[in-house]
Amino acid sequence: MFSHYFPAAFAATVGLVMLLAILGGTHMARTRRARGILDGDGASSVDGAIYGIFGLVLAFTFAGAAARYEVRRELIRDETNAIGTAYLRLDLLPNLRQPALRNAFSRYVAARLAVFEDITNRQATANAKATVLVLQHEIWTQAVAAAAEVSGPQATTLLLPALNEMFDIATTREVATQNHPPTIIYLLLGLLACATALNAGYAIGSKEGPASRLHIAGFVLAITLILYVTVDLEMPRLGLFRISAADNILRELGAQFAQ
Predict the structure, then answer these.
(1) Stretch 178-188: mean pLDDT, rounded?
(2) How far is the C-alpha of 251 from the C-alpha of 32, rounded, in Å?
(3) Cβ neighbours for 128, distance < 8 A, ≥ 6 positions apart
């Protein structure tokens, strides 16, 4: 289970290693230059290939993280709509059956919000998920029994499919929450970032004059920030860019149910 500090810790660690790699590459180049060892013409081509590979992997990873961020936010909207639709269709049931189901809906929304309230708390999250399953069974059982008391087919054909959709979207959100790139992708990003830093440091050391600290700091900071934003978007319940604000529409729906 990741902590709230994982995106920042990952980016900071890569940034620190990059800085050390630049310093190491600079020292290596100056040592070779002092010994009169010159690099071949193909060195710049290799450097360009490494930079290109790193940029490609970083771009794809960032684009994927941003896309998954939007999907997770849209799923909150879809679940809110599904719950609201099913709640409205409770009007098709006998009046005596509606209060218990409406109360169950109110508890269901609260449980769904609790699932994502603090995903670093395994026990609380597991308890909330268990509550959701119990409430799904309770709502379905009561709805089926109540629909059987209605003479027409409206309750069966309109309410029960809406309940199915409401339950299915909960599963879809659970899968989307666990949908992340393989860990090897992040390891590859870190290794490529360090490789580019080593090459940059070597290029700096190959030239006469002191290294520009401003350029080194700017290079490391830029890569570190991009990595942080990428990981942060990938885990929108942990870092700075969170989709918790999107939960407000579901929270507002629950408040309407409680009235």
Answers:
(1) 88
(2) 64
(3) 111, 112, 114, 115, 117
Q: Which two tokens stand for residue 168?
A: 């299915």
Q: Which residue carries 């940029």 as its tokens?
A: 55
How confident is the model at residue 93, as a pLDDT? 92
State residue 50's pLDDT score: 82
Query: Nearest-5° angle of CA 166, CA 167, CA 168?
Result: 95
In DSSP notation, 39-57 reads --TTHHHHHHHHHHHHHHH
For the chain, the structural domain boundaries read 6-32+44-258
Number of other residues whose CB lies within 10 A of the CB of residue 114: 16
229-250: pLDDT as tens digits: 998 888 888 777 788 888 899 9
Spatial CA neighbour of 45 closest among 199, 193, 235: 199
Q: Residue 174 is encoded by which pair of tokens?
A: 């659970």
- pTM of the entire predicted model: 0.83
Q: Hey, what are 143's tokens?
A: 């709805």
The b/e string for 59-69 (b: 16+ C-beta within 10 A; e otherwise) is eebbebbeebb
Q: Is 218 exposed, middle or buried (0-12, 13-18, 19+ CB in 10 A)?
A: exposed
One-letter identity of residue 95: N
Q: What is the pLDDT of residues 53-77, one digit of tens each?
A: 888 999 999 999 999 999 999 999 9
Helix (H) or strand (E) holding 133: helix 122-147
- Phi, psi values for residue 2, rounded to 5°: -80, 155
Produce one character per residue of 41-56: b if its CB has 16 or more CB atoms within 10 Å, e if not: eeeeeebeebeeebee
Report which of residues 9 and 142 the model is more confident about.
142
